[in-house]
Design brief:
The structure holds 2 protein chains of 2 kinds. By secondary structure, chain A is mainly α. Chain A has 13 helices and 2 strands. Chain A has one domain. In chain B, helix 3 runs antiparallel to helix 4. The chains are: A mainly alpha, B mainly alpha. The interface between A and B is large, with 82 and 69 residues.
Chain lengths: 339, 124
């Protein structure tokens, strides 16, 4: 079999991983309704396909045929491009997630990720941080009070929790001595006792809390808290533009779950099976990722929503000092030779 | 050197293409039946009161400034975090740790000052 050119391998990997991300995001939209239903003793969507599995596809088609409304006072250009600006960063951040080790693709040896950067964790933070522009531009350009308040709250919340998120990741970076997500995952490979969830439990806790706040999910979903702000920043959106906001949110949740898996649960590593083939690594990665995605839904139906001042207090007065303390405790333990 | 970034451009092209095609299809297929009622901003069915270009609470500005301050701080900590293990192996770990503690201590004092001044109290 002839060897494929390198660029074609890149295109195939990017297309497969992007398709997988969209599928997971679509399935997550179904899981959200299905799991919510089960937790409330209902059945949930079950008409379209077996177990309602084709529901996301049916929703997508329906969104396309809906009427697109633009409010009269809106800024049309910003209003139209904001959903794409909100969805793109989450979709791009998946590029550096190392799903599994080396695979052989039509004679080319390659890794199962879109690309491998030596600074991949910085890349995820940098690209992920751009998601805020879509939300604030969408909310402001709608020229509606609910949208404006929702987007302002979202941006204040996202910047506040980004600090603790970065500092909790830095503790893991210090342990592994690298910003490369693949190196961070491989450093935990040998033994489950080396997983960062065991070595840096406080960093894990901080990361999980910030993960919910960064994706605007319950109990921190102030961007769209429906009893206060109708729909929040997407109040005025309809049809496919509304759907893109949601697709972006689900993609962001998926990427955050992948990141938590890599940083704290050793990526695709399987305990007591050090030389697992790539498909077993991939399966183990997906199981761990799904666990985090399920956590999103579990928390949503377990905890009540915060109040906005409580959220800001938690972010600045509890999580930020705690994250700084955690970083130094980790470094001090490393200097003492414990970690 | 920049080769690993090419696949990101491919992914960017795919993602932009998907967004534009789905939005374009929605524009083509969705039926437009505009009316005055539909094009007003939604305020729970009441008459719209004034513009939404409002003056904002100063708190949002304060949060943004504080964020930039501490974001730069955490970025300056990145090189140290990467090299922490090597510093330790070279035997200068505690010394470097003390220096970084000094750097963060100064900013920590800043945080304590903002805290005392009430800059972190949202409902003041």
């Amino acid at each position: 079999m002839p060897e494929l050119p390198l660029w074609l391998v890149w295109v195939i990997k990017a297309a497969v991983i992007y398709g997988a991300l969209l599928s997971v995001a679509g399935l997550m939209s179904l899981a959200e309704r299905k799991v919510s239903a089960w937790m409330q003793y209902r059945i949930g969507p079950n008409r379209v396909g077996p177990f309602g599995l084709l529901q996301p596809l049916a929703d997508g088609v329906k969104f396309m045929f809906k009427e697109e409304l633009v409010p009269a006072g809106a800024n049309p250009f910003l209003f139209r491009i904001a959903p794409a600006l909100a969805a793109l960063p989450a979709m791009l951040a998946v590029a550096v997630i190392p799903f599994a080790g080396e695979i052989e693709l039509f004679g080319q040896r390659t890794t199962l990720s879109v690309t491998d950067l030596p600074i991949s964790s910085l890349y995820v933070l940098a690209v992920g941080g751009l998601g805020i522009y879509g939300i604030i531009l969408g909310g402001w350009s709608s020229n509606s009070k609910y949208s404006l308040l929702g987007s302002l709250r979202a941006s204040a919340q996202m910047v506040s929790y980004e600090l603790s998120l970065i500092l909790s990741i830095l503790a893991v970076v210090a342990l592994s001595g690298s910003l490369d997500l693949r190196v961070i995952a491989d450093a935990q490979q040998a033994d489950a006792a080396l997983w960062n969830i065991a070595r840096a439990p406080l960093a894990f806790l901080l990361f999980v809390v910030c993960m919910f706040a960064e994706t605007n999910r319950h109990p921190f979903d102030f961007a769209e808290s429906e009893p206060e702000l109708v729909g929040g920043f997407h109040t005025e959106y309809s049809a496919m533009r509304f759907a893109l906001f949601f697709l972006g949110e689900y993609c962001a949740m998926t990427v955050m779950s992948c990141l938590a898996t890599v940083l704290f649960l050793a990526g695709g590593a399987i305990p007591f099976w050090p030389d697992a083939p790539w498909w077993a690594e991939l399966a183990s990665f997906l199981v761990k990722m799904s666990a985090f995605l399920f956590l999103y839904l579990w928390v949503r139906w377990t905890l009540p929503r915060f109040r906005f001042d409580q959220l800001m207090r938690l972010g600045w007065k509890v999580l930020l000092p705690l994250a700084l303390f955690n970083l130094f405790a980790t470094a001090a333990l490393m200097a003492a030779g414990v970690l | 050197m920049l080769t690993p970034y090419v696949p990101i451009l491919i992914l960017l092209a795919l993602a932009t293409g998907f967004s534009l095609v789905s939005l374009g299809l929605s524009d083509l297929l969705g039926r437009l039946r505009p009316s005055i009622g539909k094009s007003t901003a939604y305020e729970c069915g009441m008459q719209v009161e004034g513009s939404a270009r409002l003056r904002l609470s100063i708190h949002f500005y304060l949060v943004a400034v504080l964020f930039i301050l501490f974001d730069v701080e955490s970025l300056l900590l990145v090189p140290w975090a990467v090299a922490a293990r090597s510093f330790q192996e070279a035997g200068v770990g505690p010394l470097v740790l003390a220096e970084v503690a000094g750097f963060v201590g100064v900013l920590g004092l800043g945080l304590a000052w903002v805290w005392k001044k009430g800059g972190l109290d949202w409902d003041r």
